[in-house]
């Protein structure tokens, strides 16, 4: 692994044709845990290159959609094997470029591998043979599935391998050509993933990589009439911009938008819960990956009878958290992604502290963290989720107390917020957990455990409302929205 710690990486747009090096578009990449440590550089795509990539993808689509699904799926399976073989390199790069703990990096690559194998298997089931439908005598009716056209896959920095790979391989295996737009902050690891995908046999005009500025590249991908669909993970605001741009196009077929966006994830703990277990699950849900997961816990509701005990244990657990270099196996919490993210979180912290809301905090050792974008995990007291203005995408937890007779109001307040991604409930009273789990409107409910870490094919992941459109990633229906159906009726 040491060999990947110092290597310099360079990336540029990967189009179906060769493009020239252009230093005027080159951006340096440095590590979030130490801004003095260079990782390499990325040449960002221009508007013209994004447009060129759309032309190429448009031409590639008919041939690719007629390529037998077995061949398409086999490329994903080879890609999975290659990513497994390159796990040490990819996880190290996730740490160096994205500030991820090495252990988070392992989970991340494993998830990408699982996506490839799961979607390959699912595609063989869905696309290989037409489904025969019952009909009148003298007639045969078949239902066939195929790709829709050109998909843009616009992905976030917080899962730069798993979500990035999952989106694009789903689109490709369903028979679409794909324009993959990684997040600005994590283009180097995206570039390595695509190089491995080419090694696995993916044609270079079927999947193209467009690293670059979100609005510049994104506006081409959401305004060109030949884009059939966009699969997006990121903020709710950006999803709305893309949605409006797609809708404003003239002479374009009605598009598909598959979006997985923000969350305001809550957990309700009643008085029968086990405080030690609650704290272990809360710490994991709120602070793992420095709280930079869509699924992370933001608002913890504690029933009055148990609240003081849980907060006391939580204080102790937070003091134990080790914050520092994500490549060090003893580290619990690494940096946040960049200075902009840190500044946003610090502004929130300042406001909460000024209001006297600080309940608990972890210790930052400046000798360890002084040159990186670190934020100490903290917990604040709030009255309820109603007071939360925006998702704080970092290691900040908010705690509200409730009386047993206020339970329905708490559930109503969480539902009224309109986000619906993950939710947790802790209680040893089964009728309580069943009632709460059934009333809450979210995509993923977790009972008596942490609320992060969905397993592909086992816990399909995705929300509703402001949190996304569905279908759920890693679920049996995900590929269906990338596909179109054709019914063939033959007079026999
Ligand atoms: P975050 O706030 O988590 O960085 P964003 O929604 O800004 O989330 O980013 C998610 C992805 O959307 C990134 O790949 C980013 O480059 C891209 N993006 C940002 N702005 C736009 C836009 N106007 N159109 C399309 N994509 C965009």
TrEMBL record:
Signal peptide: none annotated. It comes from the Bacteria. The keyword DNA-binding applies. Transmembrane segments: none annotated. Keywords: DNA-binding, FAD, Flavoprotein, NAD, Oxidoreductase, Proline metabolism, Repressor, Transcription, Transcription regulation. One of its GO terms (molecular function) is L-glutamate gamma-semialdehyde dehydrogenase activity. The keyword Transcription applies. Residues 22-487 form the Aldehyde dehydrogenase domain. Oxidizes proline to glutamate for use as a carbon and nitrogen source. In the C-terminal section; belongs to the aldehyde dehydrogenase family. In the N-terminal section; belongs to the proline dehydrogenase family. This is Bifunctional protein PutA. It comes from Salinicola lusitanus. The chain holds residues 557 to 1048 of 1063 of the full protein.
